[in-house]
Write a structure and sequence with these properties.
Blueprint (H helix, E strand, L loop, with lengths): L2 E5 L4 H12 L5 E8 L2 E12 L2 E2 L5 E3 L4 H14 L26 H5 L20 H9 L18 H13 L3 H13 L15 E2 L12 H8 L4 H7 L14 H5 L8 E2 L1 H12 L8 H7 L46 E4 L5 E5 L4 E7 L10 H13 L3 E2 L5 E2 L3
Parallel strand pairs: 5-6
Antiparallel strand pairs: 1-3, 2-3, 2-10, 3-4, 5-7, 8-9, 9-10, 11-12
Helix pairs in contact: 1-12, 2-5, 2-11, 7-8
Protein name: Serine hydrolase domain-containing protein
InterPro entries: Beta-lactam-related (IPR001466), Beta-lactam/transpept-like (IPR012338), Beta-lactamase/esterase (IPR052907)
Organism: Nonomuraea mangrovi
Amino acid sequence: MTVQGTCDSRFEQVAEEFERNLTDRGDVGASVCVIVDGRTVVDLWGGEAAPGVPWLHDTVGHVWSCTKGATALCAHVLASRGELDLDAPVTAYWPEYGTRGKSGTLVRHLLAHQAGLPALRDPLPSGALYDWKLMAERLAGEEPFWEPGTRHGYHALTFGFLVGEVVRRVSGRSLGTFFREEIAEPLGLDFWLGLPEEQEGRVAPTIPAEPPAELPGFYAKAFSDPTSIPALLLGNDGGYMMTPGESDSRAAHAAEIGAVGGVTNARGLAGMYRPLSLGGGDLVSQDQLAVMSPARSASSVDAVLLVPTRFSLGFMKAADNGYLPPADSEGALLTETAFGHAGMGGSVGFCDPPARLAFAYTMNRQGPGLGINPRGQALVDAAYRSTGHRQAPGGLWYRPL
């Protein structure tokens, strides 16, 4: 597999692991980017975007739930400007939301996966995720699965509509437009929530994961109990998740799906986190950055994924699930100060402000787990080793004093 790009000599371990991913760990096409102190020290890509088509410098792909980091950042930009109060009721910005037991829902509950709306009960029509108005109306009229704020459960597909509708109400712009005008374009990122048709030819199609020998608990529940939240999440989305190839359709790429629809590469994803790794830059204040990082939903089993998860206000936090059975053991072995988001199949982007580090890995061939799989984790580990961090035995990273 041909690897191209640049790599600072201090980060040769990242390059070595990236090559191993392509030769030994099943990657087909991928990119990795590491930024330290605001300077890009690793920018590599390689393999194939499609059969016989090389992954190029400007190849992009579907990064699934890494998109949630972009959506959350939009909310924090507004909060940093004083236009959005994260402790205010959602109804202060979206009055229609306060029905059926949701009047006490706060904006921070949406960001921390505590809103109680990870799925919808009544059947959605085909292509529902491409209809923003429909999804916002259905969520506003839905009864939560638990009292908002009392527990957390991963809002895999609804997160973007919940947080994004607040962004839309406050800014007067659609989520994708706000992201483009306030984040992607000022930072010069190839990153879209709603891909323009003229960029379609650059997209590397997703290669679904091979069925695992043992299903993670989330999938086992979904396939065995049709009334469960996992079953509703996967099966009641207008065909997005379960229809082969649908998530790579032109309609899917064009839609502003703020939970899972982002299209970028490692350079674009790491570039989004670069200002945050430097204290906020022109995006958010240092005070707002301090709000973004701490874990707010943690220390309990996720009501949807059925394994322990940890979230700050919109971002994944480090989680060591290595003690669980293999099918559920993938977590996110980062430092406690890092925050970002993984995407289904193993893509990941995050920043670690005390380390002044921004990192991203994207690929087209998915892995089967629910966290950062061994390909991405190997790159994360190499980046941390290269910046002088140490790892607790088999666990999280830390920076020696």
